[in-house]
Hints:
The protein folds into two domains: 22-162, Rossmann fold (3-Layer(aba) Sandwich), CATH 3.40.50; 170-253, Elongation Factor Tu (Ef-tu), domain 3. It is built from seven helices and 14 strands. The chain has helices at residues 2-20, 39-54, 64-76, 78-81, 89-92, 145-162, 237-245, and strands at residues 24-28, 32-33, 59-61, 82-83, 86-87, 98-105, 110-117, 123-130, 170-177, 180-186, 198-206, 211-223, 228-235, 250-253. The model is unreliable at 2-21 and 77-93 (pLDDT under 50).
Amino acid sequence: MFTKIFSIFLFLIILSLNCCGQKLILSIDDISYDQSRFQYAATFIKQSFEKNFLKHKGVTIVDRDQTQSVLKERELQKNESFIDGVTVKQDKALGAQYMIKLLYVSKNNELTLKLIDIETGALILFKNYPLNDFVNSSNYRIGREDFFDRYIKEQVQHLIYELDMHPEINLVRLEKKNNKEMALLYCPDGCNLKSGDELKVYFLKDSEYKLKETVGTIKVKEVEGAKSCLAEIKDGKNDILQYLHKNLKCYVQN
């Protein structure tokens, strides 16, 4: 009886780990700027980044001030921070994996983003965003906040994909609809797709190293619900069929 209960308990633990997916824990620093009139824009940009990151399941934003204190303490105790490449429990208490640092340079009317690994201090990503379409370089005011917010949303999406944190989308099967072969997509955590989105179809050549091989492209035609939609196959139909017949899992991403 005990063995049976333990087996069920172990199964539930494994299932919960598989369902949770990858997590991204971020700290977003206050924006540094060299022009005092940029203060309002700086607040808007930081809040927009935070809001749009939090729209993605699995992303957590932690308190920046707490992160800063941890980083300062790590500088003072570098020799105690690593034991055979593994951080001590004290360093893991906060939980942040990455810090985003943003810098505005008025001369270029440009925003610079740095993504830094909290544990190692290594620079993971470096991006420059020209703001001429959004921020007036003479008075540092934002022209259309809704337009700018959509732009930031797109940049956050790119960052999510570069960190391989995009939600899982599975190409389940091909089916006929109105005499057309369509791809049925299923998203365990919600698709967040719309009609007209073009996506790449790939499979994992090596699951350990996440080596991908693109086998075709599709275009979303109908969103059937929060977790499923139908897409038209633009190219690679034969390859997609081949992998599906081999029972290999096909994935989809932007």
